[in-house]
Write a structure and sequence with these properties.
Layout (H helix, E strand, L loop, with lengths): L1 E3 L2 H13 L4 E6 L5 H13 L2 E6 L9 H6 L4 H11 L3 E3 L3 H4 L18 H4 L3 H16 L3 E5 L3 H14 L4 E5 L19 H6 L2 H12 L5 H13 L4 E10 L15 E9 L2 E9 L2
Parallel strand pairs: 1-4, 2-3, 2-5, 3-4, 5-6
Antiparallel strand pairs: 7-8, 8-9
Length: about 280
């Protein structure tokens, strides 16, 4: 496995692969890798000839400086995991490599970026689009792989790719969970033992809510999910919305969409966790 730190190194590597007729699969990450990330790498290896993984903690997508400061950085452990799973290359740049000058680009992809995370984390998705567009420009992948835990992020990136008329195909991959249902996240390492025992309630209550949907309207289900989670000590819901899975706009009736998603953010102590659930009609 090759570790690349400079743009020229990536360009040379990609040129050699494409000259040999190989397809490039790309998994952008911020490191602190877990089984969820590795599932993306395995999917990339299944669908493409070569897999490149970026490890870059992107400062422009953190609207909370403390969150950026505390984000885990475990490069050597990450590299060992990627070598074991068969990744071909890691792109591990410095901030100055990605942003030789301040990135002042403002993206406008419409309503998908303005609700939920977009509303509660101003500037977050613009930062995501800045770094992902930059990485796509450098790596020039055929396909890029993202986890569905970040459901809204995938919608935003797809909208950006369409707007840019990019040829990169975005592949959404299923959430990987612990045995107790907690969605794998790099932030989980910050949970104390007590908080780690509380966090699985998020998925458990979301699962229960799919049965409530048989007798309740979407707003009633939303209210009940928030009420049940907020009853649990150390859990506090920031938002829960039930939306059309394509437009990400709230629905009022279950028959408004054939693709209905519930998207949630919960503070478990001071650790901000996200998750989602699919509602079938």
């Amino acid at each position: 496995m090759t570790v690349l730190t400079k743009i020229e190194e990536v360009e040379n590597f990609v040129y050699a692969q494409k000259s040999a007729g190989r397809t490039i699969g790309f998994v952008p990450t911020m490191g602190a890798l877990h089984k969820g990330h590795l599932s993306l790498v395995k999917k990339a290896l299944d669908e493409c000839d070569v897999c490149i993984v970026s490890i870059f903690v992107n400062p422009t997508q953190f609207n909370d400086p403390k969150d950026l400061e505390t984000y885990p950085r475990t490069f050597q452990a990450d590299a060992d995991l990627l070598e074991d799973v068969g990744a071909h290359a890691i792109f591990h740049p410095e901030v100055e490599t990605i942003y030789p000058e301040k990135d002042d680009r403002i993206f406008d992809v419409g309503a998908v970026a303005e609700v939920m995370e977009g509303k509660h984390r101003p500037g977050h998705f613009n930062g995501v689009m800045q770094v992902v567009s930059r990485l796509f420009e450098i790596v020039k992948p055929d396909k890029a792989f993202f986890g569905e835990k970040d459901f809204q992020q995938i919608a935003v990136i797809k909208a950006m790719v369409n707007q840019m008329r990019s040829s990169v195909r975005i592949v959404a991959c299923p959430i990987i969970r612990e045995e107790d249902g907690l969605a794998l996240s790099s932030r989980n390492v910050r949970l104390s033992h007590d908080l780690r025992c509380k966090a699985p309630h998020i998925h458990q209550i979301l699962q229960q809510s799919t049965s409530w949907a048989h007798n309740m309207k979407p707003q009633q289900v939303k209210d009940k999910v928030v009420e049940e989670l907020n009853k649990i000590n150390s859990l506090e819901v920031e938002y829960y919305d039930i939306v059309d899975g394509d437009t990400l706009q709230s629905i009022k009736e279950w028959n408004e969409s054939q693709n209905i998603m519930g998207c949630i953010t919960v503070y478990c102590g001071e650790v901000r966790l996200i998750d989602n659930i699919h509602y079938s009609n």
